DNA sequence: TACTCGTGGGA
DNA sequence: TTCCCAAGAGT
């Protein structure tokens, strides 16, 4: 007699997307850019700041930016130096320059109004697949699949039964779209809800499955929570990299009220070759400029 | 596709 | 202490 595998009965309750939306109603964080009356420009600014940057660090800077530059045209009129300084230490300061360029494009091409069409959003500097849909959905109330690293991890586990998400791909959008509720209002809520689930419960380290609203239908749990089988993804080194050196150099220039000479940058990093290479790359990126008399400063 | 691009908090 | 990693985009 053949032994049949023991498996849980297929889930027959409400669809996972509906359950996640209902969970969100009671579990959502009260983040300032989610409050009523926050316009698409404020949402766009938040989304760019949140790229690879934790919520706690973004909050105060976001408030300052919106108070100072309440419309795209206001940001477009600011100098790169002001924008880079206001960016503070959020990291990846090229985002600040691109956000300013996006603001200029919105002011010039879209009448100072953040567009709602995804292709128009994706055409803006610094706005890619994720951010374009996030702005269309969260800023304009549009039904859109919004896929970030949290969502890809939730889908990997819940739908595909894998411990970790692989490399991002176009099909990720379809995976999420089929989970979304039919009702448009709930579909919009779903897009933020599944992100929140990944950020609070279905986390990268040790998932808190005990509090997960869809644990009874999670393909990964039903498969016995198998460990990740693929290649371990490389951890990004930082100490000693050009990224660290660029950060040090920019730190000096952010703090300097006047242009400085090359000697003033020496304390930032001992290795002269690497220091010079990084300064060149900052110049090339438009994060630093050289005055006529050879001094360095943030671009005026 | 794989790599680069900051920063700092928490496990 | 060391390591992981956090609402990606551009090349």
Automatic annotation (TrEMBL):
Q: What is its EC number?
A: 3.2.2.31
One annotated GO molecular function is: oxidized purine DNA binding
**Which first-to-last residue range defines the signal peptide?**
none
Q: Does the keyword Cell cycle apply?
A: no
What PANTHER family does this protein map onto? ADENINE DNA GLYCOSYLASE
The UniProt entry's coiled-coil ranges are none
User: What top-level branch of life does the organism fall under?
Assistant: Bacteria
Name-wise, this protein is: Adenine DNA glycosylase
What Pfam families does the record tag this protein with? HHH, HhH-GPD
Family assignment from sequence similarity: Belongs to the Nth/MutY family.
Sorted alphabetically, the keyword list is: 4Fe-4S, DNA damage, DNA repair, Glycosidase, Hydrolase, Iron, Iron-sulfur, Metal-binding
Spell out the InterPro entries in the cross-references: DNA_glycosylase, Endonuclease3_FeS-loop_motif, HhH-GPD_domain, HhH_base_excis_C, HhH_motif, MIG/MutY
Under SUPFAM superfamilies, the record lists: DNA-glycosylase
Cofactor(s) it depends on: [4Fe-4S] cluster
